[in-house]
Automatic annotation (TrEMBL):
It comes from the Bacteria. The keyword Cell wall biogenesis/degradation does not apply. Keywords: Multifunctional enzyme, Oxidoreductase, Signal. It catalyses: L-methionyl-[protein] + [thioredoxin]-disulfide + H2O = L-methionyl-(S)-S-oxide-[protein] + [thioredoxin]-dithiol; [thioredoxin]-disulfide + L-methionine + H2O = L-methionine (S)-S-oxide + [thioredoxin]-dithiol; L-methionyl-[protein] + [thioredoxin]-disulfide + H2O = L-methionyl-(R)-S-oxide-[protein] + [thioredoxin]-dithiol. Its EC number is 1.8.4.11. PANTHER family: PEPTIDE METHIONINE SULFOXIDE REDUCTASE (PTHR43774), PEPTIDE METHIONINE SULFOXIDE REDUCTASE MSRA 2 (PTHR43774:SF1). Pfam families: PMSR (PF01625), SelR (PF01641), Thioredoxin_2 (PF13098). This is Peptide methionine sulfoxide reductase MsrA. GO terms for molecular function: peptide-methionine (S)-S-oxide reductase activity. PROSITE patterns: MSRB. The lineage of its organism: Bacteria, Pseudomonadati, Pseudomonadota, Gammaproteobacteria, Chromatiales. Coiled coil: none annotated. Residues 300-422 form the MsrB domain.
Length: 423
């Protein structure tokens, strides 16, 4: 894996490896297992995709097919070996139960998960270590691999791709990679899944399912585009669960596959999932490859929506509206309704709990249940309790104990709110 790719993947833990381990734990002791070694670029993503397949018992990252080069990450990534034809390839040894997944099916998934027409590279990862290769343990495996590759070539040619460069040869020796490379994506959940697949499928029905998408809405005004994975990507699922599922802002959020981006003007490469792209009238304003946590996503969205404004200063620099500001004057006497987070769209405060404190800031006796979080704020020599939005994390104001009838007073900045009348 190239150093640039390594730096883009951040650290922590998802439980991807559990799929293969669970299969191993429940496998009958008498089951006949087979294995095959394949290379399809960076072994992190290849290992992860195989581990998610039913019938795969284990997938181990490693090195193979080199000569005169030490089978270690340090050695194969040296500059002098980048174009060395004798360099080891980054490979994955896949152990599988043929009763659950055939070698033909496994190899079909292998060819579909990368671009086998690229020579000694996959995407931005360039060098002989990233070559496409199938290393077999028997003549039967060799023949099956040749048959699958031969069947795939006309499908690729029909889609406009060139000749397959995959090398199929007998395995001499497999060297497991260093421990930190094993289940790497599972250990590092704040990155992206490299997806260099062509989108060409052995099953034509699978191919037509994602053939096109109507992007007319993405070409109008401000839009949020998230490039999703056609296969399982833990970072995509995490983004959906932690960010997208809780977002209800007024800038629409759209999911697309990399094959569904026609009509858009993009600068960021689309082979990493997720990739978050902010569009204006169909043109990219900003792009980020990889998972964004809620704080990172809303900071990016804040720059996109609010720009250099008082609202941005309040939301992210913990600023304060001027007393009796214009937005306060608009919001202090609204009809019945709910004040919502300007970025996430989440309900924050209800007019039922609004009162006139005479301070020049919006005041409420309570927030919507679960809508805000409290944090100690000891800046400027004061002891206060800061109020932030639970979903977006933006700064809203402070809470004091001098509200009416002994209730709290939530002193809230108007510029970070929008208002929705009660229907």
């Amino acid at each position: 894996m190239a150093l640039s790719s390594f730096l883009k993947l951040c650290a922590s833990a998802l439980l991807l490896g559990g799929t293969a381990q669970a299969a191993a734990d429940t496998m009958p002791a008498t089951a006949h297992l087979d294995s095959i070694v394949v290379g399809a670029g960076c072994f992190w993503g290849v290992e992860k995709r195989f581990e998610a397949m039913p019938g795969v018992v284990d997938a181990v990252s490693g090195y193979a097919d080199g000569n005169g080069v030490e089978p270690t990450y340090r050695a194969i990534t040296q500059r002098r070996n980048q174009h060395n034809p004798n360099n080891h390839a980054e490979v994955v040894k896949v152990s599988f139960n043929p009763a659950q997944i055939s070698l033909t099916t496994l190899l079909q998934r292998y060819f579909e998960m990368h671009d086998p027409t690229q020579l000694n590279r996959q995407g931005n990862d360039i060098g002989t270590q990233y070559r496409s290769t199938v290393l077999t343990n028997s003549q039967a495996q060799y023949d099956t691999a040749q048959q699958v590759m031969t069947a795939y070539q006309p499908l690729l040619s029909k889609a406009g791709y060139g000749s397959i460069t995959t090398l199929i040869k007998p395995l001499r020796e497999f060297f497991p990679a260093e421990q930190y490379h094993q289940d790497y994506i599972a250990k590092n959940p704040n990155g992206y899944c490299p997806d260099h697949s062509t989108g060409v499928r052995f099953n034509p029905q699978q191919q037509t399912q994602v053939a096109s998408a109507d992007n007319s809405a993405l070409q109008q005004g401000k839009q949020i585009l998230v490039i999703d994975s056609e296969s399982y990507c833990p970072y995509c699922e995490k983004f959906k669960a932690e960010v997208a599922s809780k977002y209800s802002g007024d800038i629409p959020l759209h999911f697309r596959y990399a094959s569904q981006l026609s009509g858009l003007t993009l600068k960021t490469a689309t082979w990493a999932t997720p990739t978050i792209i902010l569009l204006e009238n169909g043109k990219e304003v900003f792009g980020h490859q990889g998972y964004l946590n809620p704080d990172e996503f809303y900071l990016l969205l804040g720059k996109f929506k609010l720009g250099d404004s008082e609202a941005f200063n309040v939301a992210f620099d913990e600023g304060t509206d001027g007393r009796f500001c214009q937005q306060y004057e608009i919001f202090k006497n609204t009809p019945e309704g709910v004040f919502i987070d300007k970025l996430s769209g989440a309900p924050l405060f209800d007019t039922r709990h609004r009162f006139d404190s005479g301070t020049g800031w919006l005041s409420f006796t309570q927030p919507v249940d679960g809508a805000v979080i409290e944090k100690p704020d000891n800046r400027y020599g004061m002891r206060r309790t800061e109020i932030r939005a639970a979903v977006s994390g933006i700064h809203l104001g402070h809470v004091f104990n001098d509200g009416p009838g002994g209730k709290p007073r939530y002193c809230i900045n108007a510029t970070v709110l929008d208002f929705v009348p009660r229907g």
